[in-house]
Q: What sequence folds into this?
């Protein structure tokens, strides 16, 4: 009976050992644990070797045995490489996968935000910059990016608010030409741009006499516009475009 208990105890102890040790204890070969080497991927990405990185990084990223931490490193490295080569969609895909694995990566949120910005998707860019700041309020790049984008969206909002509106109040428009401008968004935008450009050139005049002469030129344009509208051969849009070009210079200001 005592001999049987000793045998059973030994068997239980053997089962509790790691597989490799257990095999060694029974005279078998230890199990081979394969480790995925991410060094070639990181080196290729750091060396800006896109062709090599495409193959060696894929071996890491597509390998089910790759540890989570190593997988994230490989994805982030390859995303940065894609971004440097203007393969924006691929870079976004890798960064997005990395963030699914670890949604606390402020640097990756900021990097993906910059990629969204390259694609022209400003709302998504602002969202990612904001996410980076939520994780790390002191993230300098994300702070600068978020601030710049907030200012840009504010400017766009202001432009949208006045889009299609001329420099004057359409409710008080009495002349036929003014009513025509109010009825056409393109003409309304042209009128507002002319008004703004004229204000700028007067503000930048070298002296009061020059400012007075510039304003007189604008008044003369308005007078010609009012008198010419409706007459055969008069092109209001063309006249306004020419006036804006004269104010802004041949190459634009």
A:
């Amino acid at each position: 009976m005592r001999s049987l208990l000793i045998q059973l105890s030994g068997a239980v102890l053997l089962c509790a050992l790691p597989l490799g040790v257990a095999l060694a204890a029974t005279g078998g070969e230890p199990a081979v644990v394969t480790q995925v080497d991410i060094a070639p991927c990181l080196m290729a990405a750091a060396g800006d070797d896109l062709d090599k990185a495409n193959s060696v990084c894929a071996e890491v990223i597509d390998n089910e045995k790759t540890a989570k931490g190593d997988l994230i490193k490989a994805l982030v490295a390859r995303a940065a490489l894609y971004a440097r080569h203007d393969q924006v969609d691929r870079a976004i895909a890798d960064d997005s996968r990395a963030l699914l694995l670890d949604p606390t990566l402020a640097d990756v949120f900021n990097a993906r935000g910059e990629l969204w910005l390259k694609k022209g998707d400003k709302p998504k860019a602002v969202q990612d910059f904001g996410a980076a700041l939520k994780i790390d309020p002191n993230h300098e790049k994300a702070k600068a990016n978020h601030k710049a984008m907030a200012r840009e969206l504010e400017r766009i909002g202001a432009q949208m608010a006045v889009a299609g509106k001329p420099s004057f109040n359409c409710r008080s428009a009495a002349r036929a030409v003014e009513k025509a401008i109010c009825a056409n968004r393109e003409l309304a935008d042209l009128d507002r741009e002319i008004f703004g450009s004229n204000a700028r050139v007067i503000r930048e005049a070298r002296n009061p006499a020059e400012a007075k002469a510039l304003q007189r030129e604008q008044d003369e344009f308005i007078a010609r516009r009012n008198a010419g509208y409706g007459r055969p051969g008069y092109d209001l849009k063309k006249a306004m475009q020419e006036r804006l070009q004269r104010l802004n210079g041949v190459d634009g200001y």
About this structure: The two ends are 103 Å apart (CA to CA). The longest helix spans residues 140-162.
